């Protein structure tokens, strides 16, 4: 992986290639200063951790585990608090408990968190209340406030993004290792506004059963205190590695192996809009040794996927490459099987994950961007059915959610209606599942996983 077909790989070799969706920084001196500062700052994650995640994802590729990748569409500089992080972690832990319990297989937990600050946008400008403004590109680039000044890209935001990621990661490490993720706390993850919903009540039953299982093991003489897996967990971090001016200075050489790692997160993914096999992003991620994801949208061809496999995982390491398919509820059954066959026939080990969100967005008559819970579930069902047809492993899901009680996606067991969207619509970018919808979705997925794992 250290060399490419073009020349010897280096952290800056992407610069010779076309890089899509990069901001036009107006102040080049400020950009150089920010990049220099980032290059001096400590890594956010370590190479050994990225390797451990590759191994965990290798288990997914080899049918021994599932992946749950979940979090915000875009994290916010403004809405940043311990409570917000804790509430998102609670939902991830709840979803993972439901899925682990349902499928009786390990669930690898990866957050869209601690670095998810840069967004590709279909259009350079957007209409905000009748005014045309440069598009919001994520808080690491510009501000979402509705003024031309706020929308000006500012490289110092990359430093703020780095520091917020560090603080987020610090709290996540404390929560996941310091007792909060202890299975004895399984009831505590159910927030009040979730517990009163049908999914919340179903969750309480599973939590009771987990408690009983723990008491049963203790009664059998197992010293539960001595089993660290019961008291702590791993939540890995990931984000779209879109902003190469941020990612490049955080590339470090591992002193143990001599390999390069992008130390901004454990896992990075390449978006649907920047995955050209001869583009800058694929070049950049071909040379770092983190596990890498690629979003695969409707219309992608088998040849494109094979080219990505060759560029990003020529050594065919299980867990190195994840394809996150987001094809759409109506097209997945037709378009996914040929892709699965092509990659499998070529002998490439790939983790296949379903993002049921991004190809199912639409705007309501009043202009709100939303997604319907029913369409999200249909894409997941089509994903599992396609894998069953081809004989490949439906490895997991990738979803956008928030731990709060928002009204951004329609439907679900509470049947959120179009006229209710305005009441609590707070996302900076795409509509997210609220905490109840996310838990509801986990139950659907657990059932599909159970059928898959036991068949
Ligand atoms: C996203 O994950 O927020 C995103 C922009 O996805 P995609 O690249 O699949 O459109
Ligand atoms: Co999104």
How would you describe this protein?
With 455 residues, the protein is α/β, with parallel strands linked by helices. The protein has one domain: TIM Barrel. Helices cover 38% and strands 13% of the residues. It has twelve helices and 14 strands. The strands form four sheets. Strands 1-2-5-8-9-10-11-14 form an eight-stranded parallel barrel, surrounded by six helices. The protein has a two-stranded antiparallel ribbon with strand order 3-4. Strands 6-7 form a two-stranded antiparallel sheet. Strand 6 (251-253) and strand 7 (260-262) form a beta hairpin. Helix 1 (28-40) runs parallel beside helix 4 and helix 11 runs parallel beside helix 12. The chain is globular, with a radius of gyration of 21 Å. The relative contact order is 0.16. It binds phosphoenolpyruvate (PEP) and cobalt (II) ion. Cobalt (II) ion binds next to loops.
| Overall number of strands | 14
Compressed to H and E, one letter per element, the order equals HHEHEEEHHHEHEEEHEHEHEEEHEH
Q: Which range does the strand content fall in? A: 5-15%
Structural class: alpha/beta
CATH superfamily: Aldolase class I
Structural Rg:
21 Å
Q: Largest sheet, if any? A: 8 strands, parallel, barrel
